[in-house]
């Protein structure tokens, strides 16, 4: 009996010291890559005894935590034709952008309105010790005011300037262009102008349009609760986790409340390939080129011209082609094999895979680097253009412009990347640098999550100036004041100088004229 009591006391002390917490996590994005980036974190936290409730568009089978299924978000995006817009971009940019933003607003409205989320919002007994929320879309930050708990922001790529500013990180459109800008460093004058104007445009759009629209959704679904504007709530972020690795991404100054978890955090343990796929790879004479545009860009929705160029190019290569294609297709060259699903990480581990043709999504690029598979990039939207530019700068692959790609150019670049050993050698070097770290991205994410739990927040890491208006942050008011003072000083001096000139020369002329008269 005494032994049992002693064991219970030891267990109680262990639990107290471990401070297991009740965590509400939410990854709003109807995009599998956004969801996969954080799954290992949920699993590790759950294995350490934390009670997790996850709002997700991609619920996982047999997950060791509670999930709230919001997968209908994909249907909403599909009904708006966003798959075609992303894959083809054949409508005007303004029209596409408006449709996309409208889609995000509708998805947010739907997610808040699902029965389980509604119950979560309106259950007065529900409490959480920590919130972990994807912040690239602001709506779910309303949970911060609803549950009055510490708040960790999540971004599955690099954060936009509005989020970096919210946690006190320096932002500069010339030194650190927005993640959707297709350039990284050493900007030309034209690029600096574009980046500066885009930064202002994004700030105005998010502050005066996007966030207020989401505020309307919040007011609709959080009736009876006092919820501040989302633009104010984001400044309460205790920590920010960004899927960035300083070996791959450009260096930038970050506060201690911003944790870089990139570098393959989402990677799974190796598993055997399906038998049919294993036999296909082993039977390839010259090796295999793998072609996949990720989960958001659909190969079956590409424009006919681009699809024809791709098929002709791949058909002329002396390699076998494995193409992730989203539906059945006939009439392909003999060397092309299509599949709707391919275990990409395990595929990359096979020595017969010679090249990866990719849209340059961040997770895909990370996997290729860590498995030493060189790249030919074909970016479509978002951060893919910047990732493609980094691929070029790091010399781990080449890039083609999907809007103007020619068969011969495409073919030439594929063969060059496969045959020139520098691309694979650079991959190996970067992979070695990315993995030679004191803590993995997953270990950092878990440690800092439990740090926030232990201390009930991390406001002591917050930089000053996070709520300053745009004009004070960039010292525009100070610059204008200094220019005004200088103008007044120069103007007064100029008037005084004119007065003395008149005294010296003007009076002499007047005296001469008087004498003449």
Automatic annotation (TrEMBL):
<comment type="similarity">
    <text>Belongs to the UDP-glycosyltransferase family.</text>
</comment>
<protein>
    <recommendedName>
        <fullName>UDP-glucuronosyltransferase</fullName>
    </recommendedName>
</protein>
<dbReference type="InterPro" id="IPR002213">
    <property type="entry name" value="UDP_glucos_trans"/>
</dbReference>
<dbReference type="Pfam" id="PF00201">
    <property type="entry name" value="UDPGT"/>
</dbReference>
<keyword id="KW-0328">Glycosyltransferase</keyword>
<feature type="transmembrane region" description="Helical">
    <location>
        <begin position="470"/>
        <end position="492"/>
    </location>
</feature>
<keyword id="KW-0812">Transmembrane</keyword>
<dbReference type="GO" id="GO:0008194">
    <property type="term" value="F:UDP-glycosyltransferase activity"/>
</dbReference>
<keyword id="KW-1133">Transmembrane helix</keyword>
<keyword id="KW-0472">Membrane</keyword>
<dbReference type="InterPro" id="IPR050271">
    <property type="entry name" value="UDP-glycosyltransferase"/>
</dbReference>
<keyword id="KW-0732">Signal</keyword>
<feature type="signal peptide">
    <location>
        <begin position="1"/>
        <end position="20"/>
    </location>
</feature>
<keyword id="KW-0808">Transferase</keyword>
């Amino acid at each position: 009996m005494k032994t049992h009591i002693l064991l219970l006391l030891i267990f109680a002390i262990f639990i107290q010291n471990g401070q297991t917490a009740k965590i509400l996590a939410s990854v709003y994005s109807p995009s599998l890559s956004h969801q996969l980036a954080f799954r290992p974190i949920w699993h590790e936290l759950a294995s350490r005894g934390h009670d997790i409730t996850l709002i997700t568009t991609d619920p996982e089978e047999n997950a060791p935590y509670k999930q709230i299924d919001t997968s209908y978000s994909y249907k909403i995006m599909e009904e708006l034709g966003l798959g075609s817009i992303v894959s083809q971009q054949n409508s005007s940019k303004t029209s596409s952008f408006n449709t996309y933003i409208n889609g995000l607003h509708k998805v947010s409205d739907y997610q808040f309105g699902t029965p389980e989320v509604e119950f979560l919002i309106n259950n007065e007994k529900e409490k959480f010790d920590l919130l972990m929320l994807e912040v690239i879309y602001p709506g779910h930050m309303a949970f911060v005011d609803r549950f009055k708990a510490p708040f960790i922001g999540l971004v599955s790529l690099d954060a936009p300037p509005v989020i970096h500013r919210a946690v006190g990180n320096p932002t500069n459109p010339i030194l650190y262009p927005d993640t959707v800008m297709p350039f990284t460093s050493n900007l030309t004058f034209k690029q600096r102008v574009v980046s500066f104007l885009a930064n202002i445009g994004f700030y105005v759009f998010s502050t005066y349009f996007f966030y207020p629209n989401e505020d309307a959704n919040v007011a609709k679904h959080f009736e009876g609760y006092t919820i501040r504007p989302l633009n104010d709530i984001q400044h309460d972020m205790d920590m920010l986790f960004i899927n960035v690795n300083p070996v791959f991404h450009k260096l930038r100054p970050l506060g201690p409340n911003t944790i870089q978890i990139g570098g393959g955090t989402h990677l799974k343990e190796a598993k055997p390939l399906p038998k049919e796929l294993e036999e296909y790879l082993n039977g390839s004479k010259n090796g295999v080129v793998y072609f996949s545009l990720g989960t958001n860009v659909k190969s079956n929705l590409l424009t006919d011209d681009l699809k024809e160029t791709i098929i002709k190019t791949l058909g002329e290569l002396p390699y076998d082609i494995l193409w992730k294609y989203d539906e059945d297709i006939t009439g392909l060259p003999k060397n092309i094999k299509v599949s709707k699903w391919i275990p990409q990480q395990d595929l990359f581990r096979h020595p017969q895979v010679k090249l990866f043709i990719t849209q340059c999504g961040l997770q895909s690029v990370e996997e290729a680097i860590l498995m030493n598979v060189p790249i030919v990039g074909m970016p479509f939207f978002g951060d893919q253009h910047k990732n493609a530019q980094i691929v070029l700068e790091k010399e781990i692959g080449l890039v083609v412009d999907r809007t103007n790609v020619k068969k011969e150019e495409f073919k030439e670049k594929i063969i060059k990347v496969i045959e020139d050993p520098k691309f694979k050698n650079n991959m190996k070097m970067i992979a070695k640098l990315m993995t030679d770290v004191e803590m993995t991205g997953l270990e950092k994410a878990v440690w800092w999550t439990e740090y926030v739990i232990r201390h009930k927040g991390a406001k002591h890491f917050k930089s000053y100036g996070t709520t300053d208006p745009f004009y004070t942050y960039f010292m525009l008011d100070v610059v204008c004041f200094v220019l005004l003072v200088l103008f007044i000083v120069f103007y007064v001096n100029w008037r005084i100088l004119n007065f003395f000139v008149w005294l010296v020369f003007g009076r002499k002329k007047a005296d001469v004229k008087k004498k003449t008269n």
